[in-house]
Fold UDP-N-acetylmuramyl-tripeptide synthetase.
Amino acid sequence: MKLSLLFEGAPEIEITGLAMDSRKVKPGSIFFCLKGLEADGHDFAGKAADAGAAAIVHSEPVEKRDGVCYLHRENVMRELNRVCDLFYGSPSRRLTMFGVTGTNGKSTTASIISDIFSAETPCGYMGTIAVRYGNYSRVPTLTTPDQIEVHGDLAEMAEHGMKAAAMEVSSHGLSMGRVDSVDFDCAIFTNLTYDHLDYHKTMENYFEAKKLLFRHMKKDGVAVLNADDEASIEGLKECCACRYVTYGTGVLGSADYMAEDVRLTTEGTAFTLVTKEGVRPVRTNLIALYNIYNLLAAIAAMHECGMPLDKMLPLLEDIPQVDGRMEIIDEGQDFGVIVDYAHTPDGFDKVFEYGDAITKDGGDIIAVFGSAGKRDKVKRKVLGAIAGRHCAQVVVTEEDPRNEKAADIGEVILSGVKESGGSGVFVEDRKTAIEKAIRMAKPGDLVLILGKGDESYMYYGDGRVPWIGDNEAARGALRKLRSNGRGDEIE
Ligand SMILES: CC(=O)N[C@H]1[C@@H](OP(=O)(O)OP(=O)(O)OC[C@H]2O[C@@H](n3ccc(=O)[nH]c3=O)[C@H](O)[C@@H]2O)O[C@H](CO)[C@@H](O)[C@@H]1O[C@H](C)C(=O)N[C@@H](C)C(=O)N[C@H](CCC(=O)O)C(=O)O
Ligand SMILES: Nc1ncnc2c1ncn2[C@@H]1O[C@H](COP(=O)(O)OP(=O)(O)OP(=O)(O)O)[C@@H](O)[C@H]1O
């Protein structure tokens, strides 16, 4: 594409790609100089030129080289968003776009939408679990990647026959403008609880970041709001730039998509769906009440975007397992093992409530988890305290320590466990920790392995290395238990 098509009055130079990181510049790229939290892209304009940048967009003075076209613009971020959309052929306008935000449930809700909506309209998924369309899947860089990746990935989906995409929109992504030029048709809110205050500092700022998705909605779009979420519902109704519908179970009053008479079992859930189209029975293999909220959000979003309930509801009986979310690991053992991505206080509350419900006839809960390094530090002790209240034993372990010491993080978590009267140990190696918990379990117990879900990597230092995944680690530990027995390690 010619530079002149992207910037009025610019020369007819052929552009091969876009970059906001000098290390990703290729010959023919446009490099956008952005000021970040740790660095200023303007300082890398020289490096970008050395790497072959054809044009450099900047707002501050930069080191200049012959043969490079320099474009001075007041707001480089706005230019980046505009150009990403143009360069990739406005992919979000070619797709029915679902954007899911909220503290918990984004991956689950977006994943359900992508799986079920695809029965009528091929729908890709972009978020923490993967970048996925059709039979193709790859590990993502972030939950909501930068604008170049977002538009590039959406274009790739459209080129491979997708007609829709369900994407997770993180609060970081919103406040850093990563989706500013994405044309969402439907914006979905799951819930607002504590997380990410290392970045946002206050819950008000965190909520303001989430509101951006709704404030920037186009007029003919639709928002799907959680009527039962006291922390968000009124604020979102006020700021929404488009019409909205609500979902809920009636705890704070009625909703447009209501689940009544919810019956939870360990195998699945049944409820009555009440909408303006009438009353319908729903059965689903999803377990735990919070998943019914995720499901209601998905039902409302898909229906508002044109999928008939009669077509949709039968498909909900057998929703594909959302990777690493409440994933039951069954190797024929006489106790339960569940791998789940819970890593926030609310997520922990919800998972342990479910754990208590399914072990109420006897049986203890043993949990394995850690907390991420270089991320919210306040929640570490809180997670420990929640686990301590529900578990017979907590095995604290490494969980993306980055450049912190896993043992230091573990110590804080264990202080929370002890404060709430629980008992815990620290085992640094995650695989060994999972094996230990599984060896401790007695018939009827439940082992909950929390925090990493299906993630196939672990962050150490400034990079990430492959990790077999909590589900594989658990399967391996169960097979080992079957062949070797419990050994002498039960404490
Ligand atoms: C805190 C955070 O989100 N930081 C993101 C942010 O970095 P930044 O603003 O600090 O950038 P910076 O390092 O100061 O650099 C400024 C500019 O100079 C450029 N640069 C920098 C160095 C260099 O050699 N050359 C160069 O050109 C950078 O590319 C950038 O454009 O902008 C970068 C470019 O988009 C992101 O890669 C980076 O994400 C980091 C890697 C990250 O880990 N982010 C996490 C916290 C995140 O976003 N998580 C959310 C939430 C997930 C959840 O819900 O749990 C997500 O959506 O994944
Ligand atoms: N609606 C919900 N309310 C509370 N907790 C939930 C809800 N949905 C999921 N959870 C819990 O949060 C965990 C993460 O779920 P999910 O991956 O869907 O959320 P997420 O918002 O995508 O998280 P992240 O952005 O950090 O990836 C689940 O494994 C579960 O323990």
About this structure: The two ends are 65 Å apart (CA to CA).
